[in-house]
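From the shared-data thread, chain only:
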Amino acid sequence: MPHPALRLAVEIDGDGAHPAAWRRAAHTPGELLSPRRLARVAAVAENAGFTFVTLDDSLLPPGSGADPVGRVGAVERAAFIAASTGVLGIAPAVATTYAEPFHVSSQLASLDHVSAGRAAWLVTSEERAEAARAWGRPRVEGAEALAREARDALRVVRDLWDSWEDDAVIRSVATSRYLDRDRLHHIDFTGETYAVKGPAIVPRPPQGRPVVIARTGLVPPELIDIALVDGGTPTEAGEAAAGAGAPLAFAEVEVALDTPREPARERIADLERHGPWEPRPPRDGERLRYTGSAAGLVALLEELGRHVDGVRLHPLVLDEDLAVLSRLVLPELFARRIAARPLPGATLRTALGLPRPASRFAEEAAR
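Structure, as tokens:
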């Protein structure tokens, strides 16, 4: 039996995966945060046929190291992309550490409404002491505490999405009733560090729950839809995917492609003069990195398609590599039916082959 078609995602935060990618960007430094550039990158990704894009974020302001990064908040950028696209899924990174789950649930539910069901949540955590100071909160230290915060936050957010049943909004002019209060539910969550009563202030999202994405090990796999897995080879990525326990597993792949003017190795060498393209921290495992031609990447993704459900690509320099991906890589993948292009009018869950979950409160009432 053939493996289902590969789903494709791409990280579009900043100027690329290399810390010095901004030196080769096709725009002036002042345009990095402009709406025009963001809309242009999103349009290229949508027209190319990516299933969704991810937007990294940080609780902390830009640093002064080798890779200073200026950002507009990921959720705000995601909302702008939602308004300027019609098919592309949008997954902003939102940290569970220090953030209020009630606010996170409202932000992401609103994003799902304005995008007509194309929202996702890239779950992250924050362990730096500066983040705790920025929030005015006690520091969350250690892997166990970070995992607890992530787990509790995700459970609260999911329950808040479920706290409005699908038919809670009735809009009855005859009876002057907008809501059926019996279909709104208090979640009554009590964790080790906080409690949330609910219900949410935003009606249930079009997808029921926006797609939840997280790296393996951060939160229990039964709470997420897509696990991001590492692996230095397709086989290693496949082994990680098999053990992830989530409905879908996406391999993380860093890419540096040959362009019409320069081979990938020369482009990397040019950037290495300003700083190294370092591998991921050991705790996350070795990440697959491809350097070379578009045809070689097509072959690699075909091999990965036998082991994982999708890939998230991290281009070396967004302006250079995304052009090659859109012109030479994705068209070939679609022509050979290695990958699937999302269909207009479909929710992100539909594009990923994921079912729409029922509200757990409605399920409990039906028992």
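The mean pLDDT is 91.
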